[in-house]
Specification:
Helix content: 10-25%
Radius of gyration: 16 Å
CATH superfamily: Nucleoside Triphosphate Pyrophosphohydrolase
CATH architecture: Alpha-Beta Complex
Largest sheet: 4 strands, mixed
Strand content: 25-35%
Number of strands: 11
Distance between the termini: 50 Å
Oligomer: single chain
Number of helices: 3
Length: 151
């Protein structure tokens, strides 16, 4: 067994084998959806993804989504207008833990989304989102999200 040490310095019994991530599919009344381009220097740099981030220890995913969208986009999401839309998972590679992404639709927020952590944000039609270069897990999420929406 490999000994792991948590961020707080306490020893853990096992290594973390996967990370939970939340992502938001923000949509406007004109049918456009927000995508975020990964900044230079990050894994999957230059690819488009649904904005979001890691679920912190002890957080419920919806709380994490509201926090992440505030940190990344400078908006206050209305939790009551968020709904689970699907998930994707991928095995870890090169010693990195696997990833589970929980995607939520986000139908309301205060503020104008802007990229606060580099990269850029833009609004796209479902067909345009499907055509964007995306990380593999976002490809599957977009396909499932838009499967029942006219392109």
């Amino acid at each position: 067994m490999v000994e792991a040490v948590a961020c707080d310095g306490k020893k853990a019994d096992t290594m973390q084998t996967w990370i939970t991530v939340v992502a938001g599919a923000l949509h406007r009344s004109d049918g456009r959806w927000l995508m975020q381009r990964r900044p230079v220097g990050k894994h999957h740099a230059g690819l488009w993804e649904f904005p979001g981030g890691k679920v912190e220890g002890g957080e419920m995913p919806l709380h994490s989504l509201v926090r992440e969208l505030s940190e990344e986009l400078g908006i206050l999401s209305h939790a009551e207008l968020c709904a689970p839309a699907g998930f994707a998972e991928g095995a870890g590679t090169n010693g990195q833990p696997g990833l589970v992404i929980l995607l939520y639709t986000v139908g309301g927020w205060d503020g104008e989304p802007q990229s606060l952590e580099g990269g850029e944000v833009r609004w796209f039609t479902p067909g345009e989102v499907l055509a964007l270069d995306k990380p593999p897990l976002d490809v599957g999420l977009a396909e499932r999200l838009f499967a029942n929406i006219p392109i």
